[in-house]
Amino acid sequence: MPRRWPTATSCSNGWPRHWSTRCRRCAGHPDILDDLTVLGLLEGKIAVGSMNRGGLRGAAFELDDRYTAYDVYSMRAAGVDVAKALIRIDLDDPATARTLEATAAAVTAAAFAGLPLMLEPFLSRRENGRVVNDLTTDAVILSVAIAAGLGADSSHTWMKLPVVADMERVMRATTMPTLLLGGDLDGDADETFASWEHAVSLPGVRGLTVGRTLLYPRTAMSPAPSTVRRASSTRISDRKIEGTPMSTTDLPVLGHWIDGAEKASSSGRTAEVFDPARGVATKRVALADKAEIDAAVASAHAAFPAWRDLSLARRQSVLFRFRELLDARKGELAEIITSEHGKVLDDALGEISRGQEVVEFACGLAHHLKGEYSEQVSTGVDVYSTRQPLGVVGIISPFNFPAMVPAWFFPIAIAAGNTVVLKPSEKDPSAANWIAALWAEAGLPAGVFTVLHGDKEAVDGLLEHPDVAAISFVGSTPIARYVYETGTRHGKRVQALGGAKNHMLVLPDADLDLVADAAINAGFGSAGERCMAISVVVAVEPVADPLIAKITERMAGLRTGDGRRGCDMGPLVTRQHRDKVASYIDVAIDDGATVVVDGREVVPDGDPNGFWLGPTLIDRVPTTSRVYTEEIFGPVLAVVRVASYEEGVELIDSGAFGNGTAIFTNDGGAARRFQYEIQAGMIGVNVPIPVPVATFSFGGWKDSLFGDTKAHGAEGVRFFTRQKAITSRWLDPSHGGINLGFPQNG
Questions:
Q1: For 599-613, how does the pLDDT look when each residue is reduced to its tens digit (9 = 90+)?
Q2: Which of 11, 23, 363, 531 is catalytic?
Q3: What is the DSSP string of 63-91?
Q4: Which of 55, 240, 563, 580 has the greatest number of beta carbons closer than 10 A?
């Protein structure tokens, strides 16, 4: 007979009850129901982790009726919808096994709850009035190891908290929501429960779990989406993994940065911010309403006159201080980017370095703001020009480069005397606040750099606000067109950089080893979430087959996983985006293409709940397929075969986008012809990602750019300033008379 579990979800004391017939306050002592702890369910199988003195092992066994009934009934009884798996403890000491079993349940409950910080089990007892550890450190580590694959990795912080005083000190120092892990405690029950109640009252604590009983001090854990974990051999697209915390109402909320400080939002609207490598929400970000949009713009508008009037020398001194602070602490920013975007740490550091190039360019902006002067253009008349700031400028940046893309714009805008309102992506917003705090530390006056978090309401607010003079935008082509049309309709200067479908033309004389390396780097770096990523290799026959073989060989050595573990490629930014990118693989199959490497089969080096999709290579992609015509924005590299250089150029030029493209060849004549003929804004010759340095300007042609000016470089200076021409004549005493005719040169 399947075991029948209680239907009540709380005890007489009002404590929510999970995985136990009695809560600890009612029982006064742990009531371990049996010798099995349910942790997660594989579809059609039970995963068993067996731990003994020889270490951790794993296996899979067919479900039987008993565990199926437990799974269905206990989830419903507890009001929790989480995946389950089975852990069996096999230790010689039954007492130790029981305590470790309870600890393992707590660790895994926290992992399924998606909590970003978990504390090592609070296992203690009183002995002669002194609190001592009940288990050795080794035993605790072993208990944590049981939850391998469920979050026991470097992305979590494990702390030993032997006494309540230490726990309080740590909890008051962290702002991260936490589930405290408790074990079997001996000694005075009243004193023990008093300690527990004190613990759950600490800031940031979402709950306390003791053994398999989850005690929540405020509200019961709300149901989470259904979670299914499959064996690692199954395709990633088949894993319907839902790592969302069961309750995110207690997550910290990232506020706006207005008037030189972070401000709590009053809109009542927020969005979850995820750690893509773990698939869990780590915080929420405020979404601005009209009042907050007006407050942000008003602050920037009020700060503009004083900043505009400040001398160039003093503005530059702030820029130099910002540059030094950024250089010294860019590792902090890289960790923030990796934790919210997912790209590996090296990639995040590279992003910051490219943004820093623009900061350094802006440090010398006085040279680029020089006007022109002509004497005696007419008798006694001189003409000269100056460049002056616009006022409040808005920057709307995408998720893929939360530091670099804003840095394409704000250093030049600020150095030129403007004030800035940055609206970062709500998917990875924390980098913007970190940058704002760094500006304040560098001495930038309050209001000159403002961060406004939000969604479309914030975007429209900036586009329509009468006090915003200009908008810089980077994102997809449909939104870029919308931003350009809406902004210009409201009288603003707009530069809107859109999407891309970048090609790499490979001629038969090219060095195929160099080409294969370039294709890997440009196609899969940052998980393909780059507007300059190479997404199509145009192979002039007969190079396709040997080139594909070399690319495939290199792909086999790539490590996809948590960007904090030294992997080559991280996850995609959200679950929805991962699923969308993965869907193109099925489109390719339906359209008759050949999937050479299927990224859905990747075994990631990281939490299975992460938003994983491995590098994907697709050959013989029809040019009518959506895989070819649409911007996928993920680690999917398509190969199109052509018969000649001319056919390749015609194919590239026929597309709607014109962001960047590259040619790989050892023929100088072919390279020169290509760079002259091709219809794109940025060209690489044996360079796969031809992003220019900051002294030049970044931007494409056709549907990849809306507006007249590109980002940074000379065009960036022109965008954030407007020219004023002055004609002067200083009269001498001999002048006199009136002439109503049109002014003439002479």
A1: 999 999 999 999 999
A2: 531
A3: --HHHHHHHHHHHHHHT------EEEE--
A4: 563
